Every structure is written in C-alpha cells, then in structure tokens.
Automatic annotation (TrEMBL):
GO molecular function, one term: mannonate dehydratase activity
Family to which the UniProt record says this protein belongs: Belongs to the mannonate dehydratase family.
Name this polypeptide is given: Mannonate dehydratase
Protein's job: Catalyzes the dehydration of D-mannonate.
Keywords of this entry: Iron, Lyase, Manganese
Reaction catalysed by this enzyme: D-mannonate = 2-dehydro-3-deoxy-D-gluconate + H2O
Cofactors that this protein relies on: Fe(2+); Mn(2+)
GO annotation terms (biological process): D-glucuronate catabolic process
Enzyme class name: lyase
Signal peptide range in chain numbering: none
UniProt entry tagged with the keyword Manganese: yes
Pathway assigned to this chain's UniProt record: Carbohydrate metabolism; pentose and glucuronate interconversion
Length: 358
C-alpha cells in the first residue's frame, strides 16, 4: 500500500507540501494541472514545474488525478479524435516526469454530485451530503447551489464555464444511452491503451458518484458487473480502476471487499473513505472509521492486504473539522484526511505485524 495525498497545487491549496510532509506515511502527491479544462493541451514546462515542486519535497509524482475527458469523446462526436490526440499527447508528456497512474472518469456532465457541501454531523463537524429527494429534474438548481456553496474554491468536475452551458450539454447527451456511452468509452480506451502500454502508464477509471444514473444521464461504472464489462472490453492491465469505496459504497448492494478480491490486480489506485447510507437512499460522508458509517473500512483494507496490494492509496474526502471549512475546498480539509491516513495505516500495519508473528 503506497499512501498518497491529493494536493491542488501551489497557490491553489491552503495545505502546503510542508504540511503534508508531517503526515506519517505519505509517500506521493496526487496532482494535476487544475486550471486545465478537458481537452486543453498540457504544456511540458507546466508539467515539469509542478513535478519539480513535488519531488523537491521528497514526494513521488506517480499519480495524476485527473486528466479530464472532453464531453465530445463521451458523446462520440466526430471531433472526438482531435481530443483523443490531445489526451495521448498529455499521457506521453506525463510519462516523462515519473507518472505511473492516471485517474479519470467517464461520467456525463457531472463528476461527483451532492446536494449540500456542509451538512452538520451530530459531533458538530460537517461534510458533503446527498439528499435523494433534493435531486429533482432541474439540474440547474443543484448546480447553482453547489457552486454558490463552494465560494471561491474551484472544484474538479465543477467548472463554472462548462456548467454555464448546462442546457446545451444536456441536449448534446440526449441520444447517449448507457450502451452508447459504453461504446464511446471503449473507443477511447482502444485508442489510448496501446500508448499507455508503450510508456508504462496505467489508466484508472473512477466509478460514478453516486453509483446510479442521475437526471436521466447514463452511468456505466457503478457495480461489479459494469466494472467487469469495462475491464473485459479492453483486456489489458493498463486498463484499470480507481476503486473508490465512497462512490461504490453509496449503493449498499455493492459488496466492496468481494469486489476488491475480484479486481485487485486491475486496481491501480484506491480511494478509501466511508459514507453513511440511510434507508431512504440519502448519504453523508463520515470519518474513515468503519463503525461511523456503512463501509467496513477495516474489511476493505484487509481485502487489499490479503492480495498483497502494492498500488497507490489515498484517503478520499474528509469531513471539515475544527472550523476549517472556511478555508478549505469542500471535502479536502487537512484534519480528517490526515486522521484517515492514520486509520488506514493503522489497520494495514496491524495486519502486517500479525503476518510477521505468525
Ligand atoms: C474525486 C473525483 O473528489 C472526488 O470525488 O474522487 O472528483 C475524482 O477526482 C474524479 O472523478 C476523477 O476523474
Ligand atoms: Mn473517489
């Protein structure tokens, strides 16, 4: 288990690399050029600059999250080849600075979706919340609420410029069924995976969050069967997964430890976090501790351990603690994620110790 931490970059994250250095066990930084919108060229100088900042503090640059996929690729428009060429150019450039895994997603229009960013938990902390009944047929309402709640912080997948054209985007996806979206993903993978094999970068698709279709848009990475289908469609170790327990865990029917046991050799990046799912389908993000939510995090770590997992791991989101919501990006405060790192490493180390004393 190779522990990492998502960092939004100098001047774009109140948490510095020097802070992160003090969290025990963190070896790598999960990074990106966060000002780039999907389809834009990534210049080598910019890539090199961030990679140098990261390595100068002793961290690895091995994981990039995300290189976002342009909507034209997801929709399957004729312009998709141009955007796939740009994607390939980025993959090649990233391979020159030690990148080994690229996390991305194939969700139409929205990346993760929530209805509240600062829902108070019984202990007075607050966290991202999803209220099923609040998802109406009017995505505009939800978008406005989320963007307003985030204040000055930019959030990946929530680019205001792109979402300003919501009606056009929805119209463009009108004919994209689940089947069509899957075909478009396959087309994309068939073009990029040979390059990934050549430059030794593994692609790791992030599951849909939440793990069901919303606003009538198809979602294709949300369960054991949909994941199996995607992995089999392009059967290369370079076509792999970001296994996010927070996203897949929104559907209690997903047996996460069983999925890890089945897919471990294709999981290149593990997002580990807990969610508490209510009977009516609402869910809230909670601490990493298993008993605080619906995901048995210790069992999740055990499933990785059993399979000798050597891939990259990060605590995904955290609650906002001790008033930090005023100066952190929603879900990406310092404290709860740092507690998460310690919980995950605590479980891992105890499993390792038990193995040694056997
Ligand atoms: C992340 C996702 O913050 C998060 O929820 O796990 O936004 C993730 O970065 C993207 O889906 C990957 O493309
Ligand atoms: Mn995730």
């Amino acid at each position: 288990m190779n522990m990492t931490w998502r960092w939004y970059g100098e001047g774009n994250d109140n948490i510095t690399l020097d802070h992160i250095r003090q969290i025990p066990g963190v070896m790598g930084i999960v990074w990106s050029l966060h000002d780039k919108v999907a389809g834009e060229v990534w210049e080598m100088e910019r890539i090199q600059e961030v990679a140098d900042q990261i390595t100068s503090k002793g961290f690895s640059t091995a994981v990039v999250e995300s290189v976002n996929v342009h909507d034209d690729i997801k929709i399957g428009l004729p312009t998709r080849d141009k955007y796939i060429d740009i994607y390939i150019d980025t993959i090649r450039k990233l391979s020159k600075v030690g990148v080994k895994v690229i996390c991305y997603n194939f969700m139409p229009v929205f990346d993760w979706t929530r209805t509240e960013l600062y829902k108070e938990l019984p202990d007075g902390s607050n966290a991202l919340f999803y209220e099923k009944a609040a998802i109406t047929n009017h995505p505009r309402e939800m978008v406005d609420r989320i963007l307003k709640g985030a204040g000055d912080f930019t959030m990946p997948g929530w680019e205001p410029e792109r979402l300003a054209k919501l009606d056009e985007l929805f119209a463009a996806y009108a004919d994209v069924t689940e089947e069509k979206l899957f075909e478009n993903l396959k087309y994309f993978l068939e073009r990029i995976i040979p390059v990934c094999e050549e430059v030794d970068i593994k692609m790791a698709i992030h599951p849909d969050d939440p793990a069901w279709p919303i606003f009538g848009l198809p979602r294709i990475i949300r369960s054991r069967d949909t994941i199996r289908r995607m992995l089999d469609a392009v059967d290369s170790p370079y076509n792999g997964l970001t296994f996010c327990t927070g996203s897949l865990g929104t559907n209690p029917e997903n047996d996460l430890p069983a999925m890890i046991r089945e897919f471990h050799d294709r999981i290149h990046f593990a997002h580990i976090r807990n969610v508490k799912v209510f009977d009516n389908g609402d869910f809230i993000e909670v601490s990493h501790r298993g008993r605080d939510g619906s995901v048995d995090i210790a069992e999740v770590v055990k499933a990785y351990h059993e399979n000798g997992f050597t891939g990259y791991v990060r605590p995904d989101h955290g609650r906002h603690l001790w008033g930090e919501e005023k100066n952190c990006r929603p879900g990406y405060g310092l404290y709860d994620r740092a507690l998460g790192v310690m919980y995950l490493l605590g479980v891992w180390d105890s499993l390792e110790n038990a193995k040694e004393t056997k």
